Amino acid sequence: MLQNLIKQAEIKAGSQKALAGRFDVLYHRFGDYKAGRRTPDDALIFRLAEYVGLDPMEVFFAVKAETDPENGELWNKWRAWRELNPRPLASEANTLSN
Description:
Layout lengths: L1 H12 L2 H8 L3 H9 L6 H11 L3 H12 L4 H13 L14
Helix pairs in contact: 1-2, 1-4, 2-3, 4-5, 5-6
């Protein structure tokens, strides 16, 4: 999931270097993330998901399950719970009162 997320973001940005500049991250970090040598912080996972148009919570739980196998069962449990209890995106919610 993480490799795919970064690849999609790189394609959208045009290059790994352009992506790094957009998110103020050292460009070689993305290579470290894809190779599994490092794990991005939670905020970056959310920001990348939003950037490529994916559900940030779904991506977050999937990445955490992938990068934290010791707690993978927990992440998958919360991921399943979220799928059973969907919340509308802010853009989908009606904010006008009657």
